[in-house]
């Protein structure tokens, strides 16, 4: 441990396209944002999702692409301020692990197809939206002139009650037949508190460029695609 602590950290440098297109999609749990992101990727395959990294097995949540790296590798990225977001959740063995989204992963996803799409919960969204993108890109790619096009989309339902009803239906379908309603309500209680906080933050922070009310997924997916055409001009 002492040797690892004393070693010189490697300064991270990245390569990025001249125009970096990033779309962040977030919203309360159960509002269908992941479904809409999937429909966006199918309609326009230029949108790619990035690879997150972790130092151990962890609940991946909305992030199916996760690569395991060493603690030293993670420290190199962190000390270069090259994480758009990072966390220390508990792994499946009960130990804390490091988990994060490297800036390079966002750049790589955008380079592969032309644009990166971030499907994240509200906790990750807050960190990614607060990340100093322009300053970080200038530091991480000092010899490049990068134009950042960053668009944020909030996916929700008409009201808090609608979100709770949608999640109650989702939980009911997941639980065994005949499961007591009290089991569902116990899971909905913290979800209601988190959703209330999320909705208030999305409204008051003015962090999102667009809000999509997902009452019909086909209509909502078309709205997102229209925003893409308007903001990125990546669809001919």
Helix content: 40-55%
Q: Tell me about the biggest sheet?
A: 5 strands, parallel
Shape: globular
Query: What separation lies between the terminal Cα atoms?
Result: 53 Å
SS content category: alpha/beta
The residue ranges in which pLDDT falls below 50 over 5 or more consecutive positions are 1-9
Whole-number average pLDDT?
Answer: 87
Number of strands: 9
Spatial ordering of strands, largest sheet: 2-7-1-8-9
Radius of gyration: 19 Å
The number of helical elements comes to: 9
Query: Beta fraction of the residues?
Result: 15-25%
SSE pattern: HEHEEEHEEHEHHEHHEH
Q: What do you see in this structure?
A:
The chain has helices at residues 2-6, 33-43, 71-79, 103-113, 122-130, 133-140, 160-174, 181-205, 217-231, and strands spanning 19-26, 47-48, 52-54, 66-68, 83-87, 99-102, 115-119, 147-156, 210-213. It has a five-stranded parallel sheet with strand order 2-7-1-8-9, with helices on both faces. It has a four-stranded mixed sheet with strand order 4-3-6-5. By secondary structure, it is α/β, with parallel strands linked by helices. Helix 2 (33-43) packs across helix 9 and helix 7 (160-174) packs antiparallel against helix 8. Mean pLDDT is 87; it is low at 1-9. The longest helix is centred in the C-terminal third of the chain and has 25 residues, at 181-205. It is 46% helix and 19% strand.
